[in-house]
Write a sequence for this structure.
């Protein structure tokens, strides 16, 4: 066997092991939360829907900043809130926004004339926090105006992307390992073909 | 013998779900980074003389899906009914229909028997993202009302169960190779530290 092929084979095998071990806990997290998201009627999923709601009101200093985002960030600083910011439809004389993170979320209504703020607070339970990790990216593709504005989310999205890249490398590497390991490829081709056809059938929407 | 069996099941199980894993992995980039501009590439079709179920103003949940299916059959549209509700203020029945490659909004003028269908085609990456999210946690009382969605849920579950099997069998296959234990433990520990760090930052 040429030395290049041998080296490639060794490193491909090592990469498969090392990436799998590095991402093991992420894989377990996304697998288990994926099941919960897929089965909303399971008792564990229903239990994850529970959250504790509370409401508070207080006065604040006039929100600083020229844009709604800057004003919302200033209000969050005053109220010690952190998380992703979303803006619903605005009303004259009010600044409306919500903050969210896996642990909790807040709906904030700021009366810009009286400098009064009302906060509707939702505290998520442990199972809800666990489940939200699967989908918490601070961005929704159907809402072009939504932006990531919490640095922790950016790190988490980077971890999600890294896991996706790791999975793609592991899958492509496994094709090479299988091809080199087995003399007879018929069973492998059959199994891979069955998977590809089934998956492709759904992607193409052939129904 | 046990090693060989475990390795072969790991190999062939992995080969079978590998296209699904690629789908779930590639769609992550779409879900995390792409933005759709609403209203683009939408086509409209009008239908008249549609027979509307009499009880349509009272139906909810599964009954609303059944009523929606009755209308969809007449306009030759098939797919997962994402939502179906009666809007009392303007006497309309609104249906959202979803399937890989297509998102459709069906607006039924109940009194007139007129139906307007707005369709938006999905590109390849959005199809992958759609499948990634289906059936999902929303509208659980009606979700999975179309056979392909139910079958897809089954394959998504099989993918998860096989991934779990692959991780456990992979751990065994790694542990058996004594020469890889040390560096493997380092990678496992690094992964655990990264994982705990990320989750801790998100939850606190």
């Amino acid at each position: 066997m040429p030395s290049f092929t041998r080296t490639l084979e060794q490193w491909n095998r090592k990469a498969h092991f090392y990436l799998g071990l590095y991402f093991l806990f992420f894989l377990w997290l996304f697998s288990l939360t994926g099941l919960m998201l897929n089965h909303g009627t399971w008792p564990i999923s229903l239990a994850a829907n529970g959250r504790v709601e509370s409401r508070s009101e207080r006065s604040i200093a006039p929100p600083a900043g020229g844009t709604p985002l800057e004003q919302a960030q200033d209000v969050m600083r005053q109220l010690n809130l952190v998380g992703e910011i979303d803006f619903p439809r605005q009303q004259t004389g009010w600044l409306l926004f919500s903050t969210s993170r896996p642990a909790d979320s807040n709906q904030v209504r700021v009366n810009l004339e009286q400098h009064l703020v009302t906060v509707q607070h939702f505290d998520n339970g442990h199972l809800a926090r666990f489940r939200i990790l699967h989908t918490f990216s601070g961005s929704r593709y159907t809402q072009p105006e939504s932006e990531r504005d919490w640095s922790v989310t950016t790190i988490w999205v980077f971890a999600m992307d890294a896991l996706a890249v790791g999975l793609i490398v592991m899958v492509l590497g496994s094709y090479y390992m299988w091809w080199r390991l087995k003399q007879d490829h018929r069973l492998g081709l059959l199994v891979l073909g069955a998977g590809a056809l089934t998956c492709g059938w759904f992607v193409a929407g052939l129904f | 013998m046990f090693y060989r069996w475990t390795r072969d099941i790991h190999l062939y199980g992995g080969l079978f779900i590998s296209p699904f894993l690629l789908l779930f992995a590639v769609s992550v980039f779409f879900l995390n980074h792409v933005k759709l501009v609403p209203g683009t590439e939408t086509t409209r079709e009008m239908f008249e003389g549609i027979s509307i179920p009499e009880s349509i103003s009272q139906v909810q949940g599964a009954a609303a899906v059944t009523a929606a299916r009755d209308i969809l059959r007449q306009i030759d549209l098939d797919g997962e009914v994402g939502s179906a509700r009666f809007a009392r203020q303007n006497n309309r029945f609104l249906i959202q229909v979803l399937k890989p490659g297509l998102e459709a909004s069906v607006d039924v003028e109940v009194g007139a028997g007129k139906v307007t269908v707005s369709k938006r085609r999905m590109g390849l990456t959005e199809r992958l993202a759609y499948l990634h999210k289906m059936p999902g946690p929303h509208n659980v009382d009606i979700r999975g009302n179309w056979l392909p969605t139910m079958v897809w849920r089954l394959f998504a579950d099989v993918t998860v169960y096989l991934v779990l099997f692959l991780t456990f069998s992979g751990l065994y296959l790694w542990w058996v190779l004594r020469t890889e234990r040390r560096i493997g433990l380092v990678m496992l520990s690094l992964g655990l530290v990264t994982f705990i760090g990320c989750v801790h930052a998100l939850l606190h």
Chain A touches chain B through 69 residues (CB under 8 Å). The radius of gyration of chain A is 24 Å.
